[in-house]
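TICKET #2291
ISSUE: user wants both folds in one file
ATTACHMENT 1:
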Amino acid sequence: MVDATIHAGYAFHTLPAAWGEVLGRFDAGAMRFVEAPALILNGEKDTVFRADEADFARAHPHARVELIPRARHLANFDAPDAFTDAVRRFARQLPAVS
């Protein structure tokens, strides 16, 4: 699956720089400024990102935490159907925009 993803154009080599920007600029406190509903979606076995998920959830008044069972950090690769179902469930509960 990883080879197919890379072949389709996913640039894994850019991840270190991208994550440096994300982790350097966005922490749980930044969630106070997110006005939209938020889904905090982690793999059950992603110990690194799960370590802070409660802080992120507490910082946002409308955050929802959901776990993908038995998945690691790349839950969308480990359990693509469960990941997609979780995103769809979240999207369906969003208010309609007129």
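ATTACHMENT 2:
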Amino acid sequence: MSWLSSFPLSLIGLILICTLSAAVALGYYSQLWLKQADRDSAGVGPGSGPEQAHLLTAVLGLLALLLGFSFSMVMDRYETRRILVIEEANALGTTWLRIQILDAPERQTMSVLLERYVDARLVWSETGAEGPATPEAEALQRQLWTAMGDVLRSGNPPLLTRGVMDTLNESFDLAVTRQSARGAHLPDAVFYSLIIYAAVSMVMLGALLGAHRKPHRTQTMLLLVLLTLIHLVILDLDRPRAGNIQVSQQALIDLRQAMTADQIGR
């Protein structure tokens, strides 16, 4: 969501509801003007027939479908980000447990580095950054991989060292995957299309209301509020760390606490 991500949701909501309200007013008063200009039609002006109501129903149905698809897309990405947090915490937790079986020198070095790495991952996870991992996390990845080389050359069982290497590598891969998932957004063109389609639909609604000279202000305003809310929810879910709906980082927090308790218990 490029530049939209920098605007407060409240401001975007205000702009949306004003835009949709203006669209309804445009359709309503345009229809009144056409009826006034065509007095010979005996009150049956453009857009006043029952077929126009059926057309509006079809248009609003398609709008609901488009909003549903967009909501499904951002919800799937939200769920992907949530699952990736758990998978990274599981991979790091498994790495930690396997490290504790290593011989003393390698175990101590790897444990300290992994604790610092989890701290760095938590810092990145709880900030709004969409870019790569923090410089500290990247440096710790290199240090962990160097230490892993020392483990491979040590007298630890090959099966154990291979297990530590596999889960450590999986942890690094998941960090990159989480970075990519955080940077994935609903294409701008899709969101703009939703707004344009909603505005055009409201123009048609206003025209139909104007044809019958019944604005139905309360019902129309409720519809505009609902349309604005669903647009805001879609936009909020598309903001991985800047929105109000956030993926919980509790799995990583619990892992860090367990690591600390494990060290104290030794």
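RESOLUTION: both attachments delivered.
EXTRA DETAIL ON ATTACHMENT 2: Helices lie at 9-37, 50-99, 104-125, 135-152, 158-183, 188-211, 217-237, 250-265.
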